[in-house]
Amino acid sequence: MSETANHKLTAQQQALLRELPSMDRLLRLPVTIDLLAEYGRSLTLEALRAVLDDQRTAVLEGATYLPMTAMLVQAAREWLETWFTPTLRPVINATGVIVHTNLGRAPLSETALAAITAVSRGYGTLEYDLDAGQRGSRAVHAEKLLTRLTQAEAAAVVNNNAAAVLLMLSALCQGREVIISRGQLVEIGGGFRVPDVMAQSGAKLVEVGTTNRTHLRDYAAAITENTAAILVAHHSNFKIVGFTTEPTLAELAELAHAHNLPLLYDQGSGALLDTAVYGLDPEPTVSEALAAGCDVVAFSGDKLLGGPQAGILCGRADCLAAIKRHPLARAVRADKLALAALAATLTHYLKEEAETAVPVWQMIARPLADIEETAHTWAAQLQEQGLTAQVIAGESTVGGGSLPGTTLPTRLVAIPAASPDDLAAALRRQDPPVIGRIQDGRYLLDPRTVLPDQAGDLIRLVIQTMNDERQTMLAER
Ligand SMILES: *Cc1c(COP(=O)(O)O)cnc(C)c1O
Q: Are 117 and 57 within one domain?
């Protein structure tokens, strides 16, 4: 601070500024030495400087006393803790949306988690052939399982399904025409628009039919010598209802093959199990799509498949060979963590234990009576604390751009709150944060998507938060 500025200060302000501990003094305190050991020198110095600056500003703005030195160091500790709290962290998903894109989509099975740890703690056979003792291919790890499960001739795994679709079109359709129904020119969310991806791939879009009705003859009329493929994109996040028609995959395959063209299918969800068995809307499984004649099927690893983020391509050997050869394949390849988790997730399907081992399918298949029992247990735990909670009927959704409009009956714990938004915000500030939903002025918890080992935390945090809110309200009266 310059002398001139100092002249304008009152005597009290000057005294307070002199009293402010120096950085040297702070650094000699045992509590600060702890901070240095825990958080490293440069960030700790920055934290202390920030705290001292704040105090100087406070004095200049009229503060009449200084906090104790221990409080200053505590403020620096809080500053540092904020820096070291990860922004990507676990939450409790009580929304009832099973494949919640914003909350990270599919939770992984224990086996998949163990597989990730096993190959990432040290070295692994990512691209190493143990028999030959030389370089191998990362392609092998999930492909044998995928071809076995889907009956495809070949398979490839990339970073996500958007990349899978881009790669498929780039490798098979670049510079030529791709025929697609106007009813399928969709945006999946997060800015993934089928027409934009097609443009990126260098394929030319040929739109046929209308938004609600496209006939086989519309496709047939659009085939020219420049056509590279027919593309079908699954309506994964909306439903066209009413006066609608679309040819089946089998009809399109027959048409495509009669013209020596491949039928490409962006299946989206990666359902390997029959969704209708679980009371969900039917949608073609990957094997059904291949059996219907699709030449390449693209889908996500972390939607209904219930694995890690990945994009998977299954289909004809010659198409997959062209896809793997394309330069983009290297740019969008899957990493070892995803490959390990994907292979482990696929083994659950091979053992026919997906319904009990893959969390997404456990949640889908969870019996209503079981959910109801949990909801009553939770409500009783809240009531024991003098809090109001009821069990009501409601609906869970699959979400994540899977099965539009399909819901599963559930039981919810409904908590009336003076301000449900405030309660929701307070629960989001907990550790771990709790994410529920609000409906008709009530805060709702859906047991379906809460992992069994999170239930204890959930109830404890709800009780704590509601008690805090009650205290605040009493204090305000
Ligand atoms: C979800 C989805 C995508 C995008 O998949 P990501 O794995 O999120 O990249 C593309 N197409 C369809 C039909 C989808 O449902």
A: no
